[in-house]
């Protein structure tokens, strides 16, 4: 959340969103099983980490809302969809052998698909 706040001041909102998503995926996939726990916690108010997941979700949503306003990202992606995409990429990272981890490439392809007329 602190990183998202710092990145909100970045000159290029797409670069800020890309950096935040890379860090979020690393965080999601730090420990085996964490991706699933965080995904469930986001939508289950009864879990201990629900509030923190909601705050992290909102920090990414703020960066996501800024990018289309600057013409850097298509407006079609919702914050919930962004969270779902990051959960998927985190799962790939968490479950890939270290020498076959292609999660960075997958995330780059997703961001390129969202970008408007530029590289990520």
Automatic annotation (TrEMBL):
It comes from the Bacteria. InterPro entries: Tet_transcr_reg_TetR-rel_C_sf, TetR_SbtR-like_C. Residues 12-115 form the Transcriptional regulator SbtR-like C-terminal domain. This is Transcriptional regulator SbtR-like C-terminal domain-containing protein. It comes from Actinomadura spongiicola.
């Amino acid at each position: 959340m602190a990183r998202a706040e710092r990145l909100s001041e970045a000159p290029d909102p797409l670069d800020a969103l890309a950096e935040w998503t890379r860090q979020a995926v690393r965080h999601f996939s730090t420990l085996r099983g964490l991706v699933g726990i965080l995904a469930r916690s986001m939508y289950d108010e009864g879990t201990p980490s629900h509030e923190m997941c909601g705050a992290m979700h909102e920090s990414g949503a703020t960066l996501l809302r800024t990018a289309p306003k600057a013409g850097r990202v298509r407006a079609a992606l919702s914050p919930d969809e962004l969270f779902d995409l990051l959960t998927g990429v985190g799962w790939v990272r968490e479950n890939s052998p270290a020498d076959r981890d292609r999660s960075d490439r997958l995330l780059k392809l997703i961001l390129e698909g969202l970008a408007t007329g530029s590289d990520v």
